[in-house]
Amino acid sequence: MTDLRHHGDAELAPGLIDLAVNVRADAPPAWLRSLLHDALDRSSGYPDPRPARAAVATAHGRDQDEVLLTSGAAETFTLLARALSPRRALVVHPSFTEPEVALRSAGHPVERLLLRPEDGYRLDPAAVPDDADLVVLGNPTNPTSVLHPATAVASLLRPGRLVVVDEAFADTVPGEPGSLASRADLSGLLVVRSLTKTWGLAGLRVGYALGPPELVAALAAQQPHWPVSTPALAALVACTTPSARAEADAAAGVLGIWREVLLDALPAGVVVEGAPRSSFVLVRVPDGGVVRQELRRRGWAVRRGDTFPGLTGNHLRVAVRDPAVSRAFAAALTDVLLPVTASEEVP
Fold first, then answer.
1. At what angle do helices 50-60 and 230-239 cross, to 10 degrees?
2. Alpha-carbon distance 60 to 15, whole Å?
3. What is the pLDDT averaged over residues 286-295?
């Protein structure tokens, strides 16, 4: 049975180089750390979400009542499961598993739409059943790193259906071409965002969602008082300024260059799935379980793929790091794959 609660941090251990978690390794930057320290000094009082809500609304051209601040983007999925009673919930896989976990934990049956490797794990809107009233997908999708066209995602919208788009990695793509975060005109759309990936704030738990005011209010009603801490609120204000968003976009451009270095360095015998556009790549290798354990023995942690519906034990998700790290990893993977490939060639 697929372990939907397994995540990349479970792969980590002291002494391992982390290619398993998709968080920028050199973040948060110094200016953000300084702001967080200042916010911690102000934490004797209760959090005031109003400046952060206003900042997020301004960044995406939304009204403030369309903004939900959350303790990490993943909280949104739990709130949805508590607030809604979908008749036919569909999760597009392979993808981040927390939406399905939250729905099932709340007692909702969940159907899966498995995207196909022969299609490059690209979304086919026609494959979504007409009567699905809740559709959840990621864009870019974790773990495939595929960016679905915004037009394809928007085409899923129809009366009586809520489409939830997990855009936790949207800012890892220069210009955010797949994002629908600013599309307040699209009825029945909820966009989920995170500061975790680009700004290195996984431990702070800070995210937000953008959607219709009545849905935002229903989700907020499921939250406890003060769900987002003062430092997290300070991060939301700081990271949604024009200068911070420009810095994030520049980092996404560098990330794209680094990703190409990793892809170019991967040895023969490694299949890159789809067309990666985010801060990680999905690869398929022969005898993946053995390869992952041997990489681990040599000091490298990568994310196993078989806990994502639709993938196998031969799939590994590898985070993009700086070129020196990527080349060193590719060299280690080459050494690991040599005996595996040789054993497959024996008659």
1. 30
2. 40
3. 97
Torsional sign, CA 84, 90, 92, 93? positive
Question: DSSP string of 44-63?
Answer: TSPP--HHHHHHHHHHHT--
8 A C-beta contact, residue 10 and residue 309: no
3-state secondary structure of 69: strand
- Where do we find the tokens 């939301």? 236
| Predicted confidence band of residue 44 (pLDDT cuts 50, 70, 90) | confident
Pick the closest to residue 189 from 161, 222, 223, 221 (CA basis).
Answer: 161
**What's this model's pTM, rounded to 2 decimal places?**
0.94
| C-alpha 236 chain-centroid distance | 18
- Spatial neighbors of 31 by CB under 8 A, at least 6 apart, are none
CATH match of 30-241 with 3.40.640.10: yes
Average pLDDT over residues 194-217: 94
String of b and e for 231-255 (b: at least 16 CB within 10 Å)?
bbbbbbbbbbeeebeebbeebbeeb
The string of DSSP codes covering 269-282 is TPEEPS---SSEEE
Q: Domain 8-26+245-337 in CATH: superfamily?
A: Aspartate Aminotransferase, domain 1 (3.90.1150.10)
Q: Are the C-beta atoms of residues 141 and 95 closer than 8 Å to each other?
A: yes
Q: Spell out the domain ranges in the chain.
A: 8-26+245-337, 30-241
Pairing mode, strands 89-93 and 17-19 = unpaired
